[in-house]
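hey m, so remember when u said the tokens were messed up on ur end? i reran from scratch. heres the input so u can diff it against urs
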Amino acid sequence: MTEHLNLAELAATLERSPDYRILRRLVARKDFNPGDREATRTGLLLDVETTGLDTARDEIIELGMVKFTYRPDGQIIRVVDTFSAFNQPSAAIPAEVTALTGITDDMVRGHKLDEDRIAAFAADAVIVIAHNAAFDRKFMERYCQTFTRKAWACSVSEIAWRDHGFEGSRLSYLLMKAGFFHEAHRAVDDCQALLEILAFQLPGTDKSVLSVLLERARRKTIRIWAQHAPFDLKDELKRRGYRWSDGSDGRPKAWYIDINDTDRAAELDFLQTTIYQREVDLPTQNLTAFDRFSVRA
């Protein structure tokens, strides 16, 4: 006890100096803010570990979820429950995946994801949040149909981290900026880490990360497909924020971008004047949190 108190006093002393920054080991907590049960909503944090990056062919080897309540203004109230499960894939786990995740064939042998149990756990969640929803959502929709009907948000792409003074969006880096570190390797532990990040107040604002993320998730966006764009202007499109779809998942083989509905006219004008240099009729999609990041989009 004396040693603990001395370390705490030392940490407090160092924190008062501009020459030091203190990181504390992340300890999962249940309670964040007081709140009335009737005035809260339920959110779900989700993370998957997989045999690879191909969302159409690779398989989940671990699923972690943390269910929590929050107020409509984005203040997190408390953790309600956690979920963790392994899944044995149809082939051996690649060595590079084991090296990255620490998950071995012995750990997953005999385990199988239970769709009914997963669906029951997620049933009351009004939004699912993942730290790369474009990856996690596609996997989850293959394993459990419940997730095709849920609203999703992405804590990587839907927070303008650099605009708020951050140099990147990696989970470990953001956790460090929130004053913590963790050395866990389980998916549910990464969900606990993400929860602390969502509870963090963004610098220069009076809003939590979750509050800003919810605002972004509620907006309607437009996806524009720059089909048959001139090859020699691909770098211009990349600089503008366009991404490439190779068509292997059933979507068009083309460059595309997701923008706010209010920016549609300006983006089409850019394409017509800079890329195609003529009037073009390009396919567009209206996206909301219910289909954004889904393979259906």
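this time it looks ok to me. The first helix runs from residue 2 to 15. if urs says something different then somethings off w ur setup not the seq
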